[in-house]
């Protein structure tokens, strides 16, 4: 006769409790690695975009500040240098000032000269216009410059920007309207023999201030 030992009711209950505890622990622990993997994946997708967005926002703010500073410099130069030179007739504002000891740069020429000095840096600043003076008439506007000009001519208080990749470098390009805010500038552009447009008035967008910065620059 074979006797089969069966667990008591208390043993069965104890085993059931252990199984339930193991199942509960597994249900609590199992989602943790899944959550970690999902969080890492979302971070990998979201963080670079947030960094890029912040970088673009910083670039736009910096461009606006630099454009305002350059406008201040040019306005000061116009009032305190060019106007005095015109009144005294000792010096004349000119595009080709470097080869003429009796000439000083026109205000816009000053900005172009400064831009050329900065051209080898990670950050560049400059002006461009649809109505360039003869010494710059061969310069062609690229797609960004053309679109920026059209947009800013209609929205002079706005900012036009774009992220691009050039030579393997990520760059931020920003443009703001450079409007005629000083009557002396209007008078000069309307009376200068080489000026391609002679019906300027206060408030007109004469050019775009462009600013470009490598996003990898320090």
Provide an overview of this structure:
This protein is α+β, with helices and mostly antiparallel strands and 218 residues long. The chain has a single domain (57-214), classed as Beta-Lactamase (2-Layer Sandwich). The protein contains five helices and six strands; from the N terminus they run ααββαβαββαβ. The protein has helices spanning 9-29, 31-88, 107-118, 143-154, 183-191, and strands at residues 92-94, 103-105, 123-128, 159-166, 169-179, 205-214. It has a four-stranded antiparallel β-sheet with strand order 3-6-5-4, with helices on both faces. Strands 1-2 form a two-stranded parallel ribbon. Helix 2 (31-88) packs across helix 3. The longest helix is centred in the N-terminal third of the chain and has 58 residues, at 31-88. It is elongated, with a radius of gyration of 33 Å.
> Runs with pLDDT <50, length 5+?
1-5
Q: What about the largest sheet?
A: 4 strands, antiparallel
Structural class: alpha+beta
CATH class equals: Alpha Beta
Strand content: 15-25%
In terms of quaternary structure, what is this?
A: single chain
The SSE order reads HHEEHEHEEHE
Give the CA-based shape: elongated
Whole-number count of domains:
1
Q: First CA to last CA: what distance?
A: 90 Å
Instruction: Give me the CATH architecture, please.
Output: 2-Layer Sandwich
Quote the CATH topology: Beta-Lactamase
Determine the fraction of residues in helical runs and give it as a percent range.
Answer: 40-55%
């Amino acid at each position: 006769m074979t006797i089969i030992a069966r667990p008591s009711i208390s043993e069965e209950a104890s085993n059931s409790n252990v199984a339930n505890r193991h199942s509960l622990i597994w249900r609590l622990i199992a989602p943790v690695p899944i959550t970690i993997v999902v969080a890492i994946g979302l971070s990998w997708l979201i963080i670079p975009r947030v960094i890029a967005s912040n970088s673009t926002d910083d670039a736009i703010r910096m461009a606006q500040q630099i454009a305002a500073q350059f406008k201040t410099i040019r306005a000061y130069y116009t009032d305190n240098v060019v106007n005095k030179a015109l009144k005294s007739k000792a010096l004349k504002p000119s595009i080709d000032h470097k080869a003429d000891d009796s000439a000083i740069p026109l205000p816009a020429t000053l900005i172009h000269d400064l831009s050329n000095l900065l051209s080898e840096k990670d950050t560049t600043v400059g002006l461009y216009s649809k109505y360039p003076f003869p010494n710059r008439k061969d310069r062609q506007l690229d797609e960004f410059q053309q679109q920026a000009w059209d947009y800013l001519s209609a929205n002079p208080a706005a900012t036009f920007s774009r992220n691009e990749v050039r030579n393997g470098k990520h760059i931020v390009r920003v443009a703001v309207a450079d409007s005629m805010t000083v009557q002396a500038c209007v008078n000069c552009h309307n009376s200068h023999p080489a000026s391609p447009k002679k019906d300027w008035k206060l408030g007109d967008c004469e050019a775009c201030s462009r600013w470009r910065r490598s996003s990898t620059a320090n």
